[in-house]
Model the fold of this input.
Amino acid sequence: MFTSKTTVRVRYAETDKMGVVYHGNYAQYLEIGRTDALRQIGLSYKSFEDSGIMMPVLSLNCKYLKSAYYDDELTIITTIKEMPKVRIHFHYEIFNPQNELITKAEVELVNIDMKTNRLTQSPVVLIEALAPYFKS
Amino acid sequence: MFTSKTTVRVRYAETDKMGVVYHGNYAQYLEIGRTDALRQIGLSYKSFEDSGIMMPVLSLNCKYLKSAYYDDELTIITTIKEMPKVRIHFHYEIFNPQNELITKAEVELVNIDMKTNRLTQSPVVLIEALAPYFKS
Amino acid sequence: MFTSKTTVRVRYAETDKMGVVYHGNYAQYLEIGRTDALRQIGLSYKSFEDSGIMMPVLSLNCKYLKSAYYDDELTIITTIKEMPKVRIHFHYEIFNPQNELITKAEVELVNIDMKTNRLTQSPVVLIEALAPYFKS
Amino acid sequence: MFTSKTTVRVRYAETDKMGVVYHGNYAQYLEIGRTDALRQIGLSYKSFEDSGIMMPVLSLNCKYLKSAYYDDELTIITTIKEMPKVRIHFHYEIFNPQNELITKAEVELVNIDMKTNRLTQSPVVLIEALAPYFKS
Done:
């Protein structure tokens, strides 16, 4: 299992007239969570695209437990529970500054070879970087 | 069962470097779908808030089947399958201009009394407007 | 001079905690204004890109005179005052449902040949479609 | 004169199909720039609103000189050149990772007393915190 932690500060633009973060904006926080998770093991999603593999999102599931507010520094815990294959699952928990769990989410991505536009396996560098976390 | 249909045209701002609509932006399309569904039965979400009931989103589930492209006119089918109580479930199907199903989604909202900040029943006007669609 | 008129309804997502449309979101309304202006003379910005000309924004100037609110249907008046050359200027006025001028804006685009990545003249179809409006 | 420096990393969601940051999203970077500028002198915009003063944007001017790309870490230089009164002017320069100036911008805010909804002077704490930078 691989887990990483990153923080993001709520922008004014991300709030809505209810005074809280608009629910649709959490998708961006999750994107930041997984990008930063990769960066922490020396990888960049950008380099995957540069090398010809893109990873569109197949599904997004969010449960909103509490609201987040302007200027809050949120903590995003991103977890990969299974070794990625053609698909990669990310599990998320987002905490507010009071350390309360405010959002739980799952995002499923799929690897696409940009030349052939077909499904492909996860990049080798990703598999290698994650391997130490999945030793039995 | 109550079903409504609305259309939305993809904005340039909504695309990302993959050349398609960023997955997180569908939350806005779903919001448009349910707002327009209400409008078609003579109601406005705005009037609910003005009368003291707000409806934050509890959960969002999206399955992305195909991509949507800049300037596409998408068709959003919004369905209410059960009479709303404290919670309201919306089911969605989004179609591209070729009439292919590109996204399936569910959004669950909850009614909050803005004075007490507590759960409450759906507005009476909503129940009355939907009643004809749920006659047994 | 060429003038067109289009409408856009304010989305919940576009408001911020001040209860009004976030100022940065007007850029999207302006984009809708000019896209729709082109559509009204039989053109599509999408077709320009498909034919190899893209039009990035060089400058954006907005003056915010009054606020816009959730669910407001705004009217966008888009004006081209001079025949486009390498650059195209759009002038905008946005009105609220009470017909008050709420925003004035200018956007300047430039034509780029996507093959050479260099400046180029406006597409011929655009010049031809606009010609009748600039007869002296 | 008061100048501060902050960084922001480009999100995938902020790019568009041209492969670069959508021009309208720079408004959010500018917002981050001024929020962080205030934080660096011990203030928070949030506390201004909590104390009853809000600062809506009166005008936004952006010149786009070069594009910004996904995952770029941008540097935002935020400058206040004149002591704020009823209005506050922010001047901006944004640099890419190659240290090239990519955007110049100005944003003008105005102080509004949230109780009376009328113009008011800048918060005393802001004037005091800025005073050392404007000594003659």
Notes: Chain D touches chain C through 23 residues (CB under 8 Å). Chain D has a mean pLDDT of 96. The CA atoms of residues 12 and 44 of chain D lie 28 Å apart. Helices of chain D lie at 26-40, 45-50, 124-130.
